[in-house]
């Protein structure tokens, strides 16, 4: 079973990096197929904590070949900062390969992201301001800069000139900002070219050959289902395909090569940025969850919005992605609660919705219909089998499994690398 896709079920920050790392010793390749450095993966190995933003988390596992696919937008400054930081900690990053077709985030993308978001005022999307959206917009508008363009200065200059012809008018006349010089962008991008060259490859071909050879290839999604540009809470979404279908388009691997779809879901729910969130908590329980779960963005440091587990969202993500296995993370955070609410349906102006409403306005006005489950007080961080969990914790997991439409194969019971309970193997 060589092709495994890992996707977020909620609004991101579910612990996808840890799930990828869990497969590390049996994984030959790890592919990041969407997003940029707007998402963060935190991986704990022994006493060491690693916060990755652009790099695939598989880069931390010896012998694994990490790949940045064509569906990713790459900030070269961030790329080399992360590589140098890992090298300084003694990690080998020489296996990294980057698709020649991946698009580049430039200075003008970052500038436009920030000024556009401020211009929206109360209608802000909640972007990270890192240029991801404008870079994807240029890709769709066919005026983007690709990795391969850095190796032909004439082509690069032509593309930058074409992009800035329009963008400088916007910056100067609408946003009252200074114009950006073509040479400023070209010189900056060219300064990375020779360091980048050894990493660039036809990654779609490499991955196809790896799958043909029977290697285990893990496709690691950034963000999550509810942030997918097509299937998320539009317009409060990211700019790429964060669902399992994006693994094929974002890597150049055919969908028939994807054998298992693993969804990562927290034992409660969080999101960052604007947009609807039916189970969101605004009271002391919300602050307790945020503090206990350390719910602050890996990339931005922003406090995450927190709420109870939302079963309709998990069912929705299971359908959209074709999820075969769930990894339930942060179960330990709920320890100490007398009872644990779970959203089993929504109320929208007196009408019950058992599934996520197709109408965004309905979803925005939805309030959760909650079912309550007994909590537990025992420390579960040392549990390594399902039977070692308190009965109340077992019942909670089994209830979520029944509501979610697919099996819960792995349970996270702490931040450490080995703090997991494996009920079903994700590879065999």
Automatic annotation (TrEMBL):
What is a GO molecular function of this protein?
A: GTP binding
Q: Which residues form the active site?
A: 13, 41, 139
Write out the GO biological process terms: 'de novo' AMP biosynthetic process; IMP metabolic process
User: Which cofactor(s) does the record list?
Assistant: Mg(2+)
**Which InterPro entries would you find in this protein's record?**
Adenylosuccin_syn_GTP-bd, Adenylosuccin_syn_Lys_AS, Adenylosuccinate_synth_dom1, Adenylosuccinate_synth_dom2, Adenylosuccinate_synth_dom3, Adenylosuccinate_synthetase, P-loop_NTPase
**Catalyzed reactions per annotation:** IMP + L-aspartate + GTP = N(6)-(1,2-dicarboxyethyl)-AMP + GDP + phosphate + 2 H(+)
Top-level class of the enzyme under EC nomenclature:
ligase
Query: In the Enzyme Commission scheme, what number(s) does this protein have?
Result: 6.3.4.4
Cross-referenced Pfam families = Adenylsucc_synt
The record's GO CC annotations read: cytoplasm
Residues reported to bind substrate: 298-304
Give the record's pathway.
Answer: Purine metabolism; AMP biosynthesis via de novo pathway; AMP from IMP: step 1/2
Q: Which UniProt keywords apply?
A: Cytoplasm, GTP-binding, Ligase, Magnesium, Metal-binding, Nucleotide-binding, Purine biosynthesis
Record: residues binding GTP: 12-18, 40-42, 304, 330-332, 412-414
The entry's IMP-binding residues are: 13-16, 38-41, 128, 142, 223, 238, 302
Q: Where does the chain bind Mg(2+)?
A: 13, 40
Q: How is the cofactor bound?
A: Binds 1 Mg(2+) ion per subunit.
The listed locations are: Cytoplasm
Q: Which Gene3D superfamilies match?
A: Adenylosuccinate Synthetase, subunit A, domain 1, Adenylosuccinate Synthetase, subunit A, domain 2, Adenylosuccinate Synthetase, subunit A, domain 3
What the entry lists under PANTHER family is as follows: ADENYLOSUCCINATE SYNTHETASE (PTHR11846)
* Protein's job: Plays an important role in the de novo pathway of purine nucleotide biosynthesis. Catalyzes the first committed step in the biosynthesis of AMP from IMP.
Q: What family classification does the UniProt entry report for this protein?
A: Belongs to the adenylosuccinate synthetase family.
Q: How does it assemble?
A: Homodimer.
What is the protein name stated in its UniProt record? Adenylosuccinate synthetase
Q: What is the lineage of its organism?
A: Bacteria, Bacillati, Actinomycetota, Actinomycetes, Micrococcales
